[in-house]
Amino acid sequence: DWSMAGYREQAIREIREKVGDGRVICALSGGVDSSVAALLIHEAIGDRLNCILVDHGLMRKNEAAEVVAMFHDHYNLNLKLVDASDRFILALEGEADPEVKRKTIGRLFIDVFEEEAKAIGGADFLAQGTLYPDVIESVSFTGGPSVTIKSHHNVGGLPERMNMQLVEPLRELFKDEVRLLGRELGLPESFIGRHPFPGPGLAIRCPGGVTREKLDILREADAIYLDEIRKAGLYDAIWQAFAVLLPVQTVGVMGDGRTYEYVCALRAVTSVDGMTADFYHYDMDFLGRAATRIINEVRGINRVVYDVTSKPPGTIEWE
Ligand code: XMP
């Protein structure tokens, strides 16, 4: 794609101009956005880039290992996996307010990057894969008064004490453009086609207080749901699909016994840029299959419901 080849050249020039002979630390999330940002910056400044993948304990099943393997197999950049899951989960434990959760996660991310920057002898820049919709949705809601819908963990600048500047080479792009750019940079197709995943991860898919136990239940249900979607050949037709663990227990029956366990909500939407979305129209057989597997295979869930809300008025994530 010629326009993306042009964008790549221009972005690399701009990164070189901004960074000079400085050092950049890049917050890799494992998603397409931060991966593309990292590859651009690596092309611009080579080994003066250090990538950090923070395992905040809020990732999907096997995600950290898959991301590390992908980069290891295809690219030659500095990537460090930092296990900070205890810290994040401890800080979130019992917190039910969505904005407090998001801000807590954002603050801890900054703490970890600050420590990692220190560990490599200091960095002048922090790179993020912020997209255009992230920027505008954090600022205001189109057509209305200026209201924050959600604080995106990766928008909003850095604390002054950090003495680091932001590098955000994708700030003007939409998701479909980032995917084109990823292709241009040789990212494997399986990676480019991945559904978006929010920085605050599973924490914002556990309405109510987050606990390690709930995260484990959610992670299993989510993996089964995505497995069924792939098996049905639906993955690429859907913009984003995930499970949500509701803070509600309901009564069920299993064999001769009564159960009293959590409700799992399934979400799937189609969208072009994440700004608006329609709920995905599955056939009921698919939903029945996914629900049966989740209830049979995940201890802690005895009921599954499907979310038929579009955006607006709903948002894609529940928090
Ligand atoms: P909402 O829920 O606002 O989400 O309709 C729109 C898209 O953005 C993703 N999302 C985030 N991505 N950091 C991110 O990197 C965040 O804090 C965040 N919150 C939501 C969401 O998954 C959807 O694709």
From TrEMBL:
Residues 2-194 form the GMPS ATP-PPase domain. The keyword Ligase applies. Coiled coil: none annotated. GO terms for molecular function: ATP binding; GMP synthase activity. It catalyses: XMP + L-glutamine + ATP + H2O = GMP + L-glutamate + AMP + diphosphate + 2 H(+). Pathway: Purine metabolism; GMP biosynthesis; GMP from XMP (L-Gln route): step 1/1. Its EC number is 6.3.5.2. ATP binds at residues 29-35. Keywords: ATP-binding, Glutamine amidotransferase, GMP biosynthesis, Ligase, Nucleotide-binding, Purine biosynthesis. One of its GO terms (cellular component) is cytosol. The keyword Plastid does not apply. It is an enzyme of class 6 (ligase). Homodimer. Catalyzes the synthesis of GMP from XMP. This is GMP synthase [glutamine-hydrolyzing].
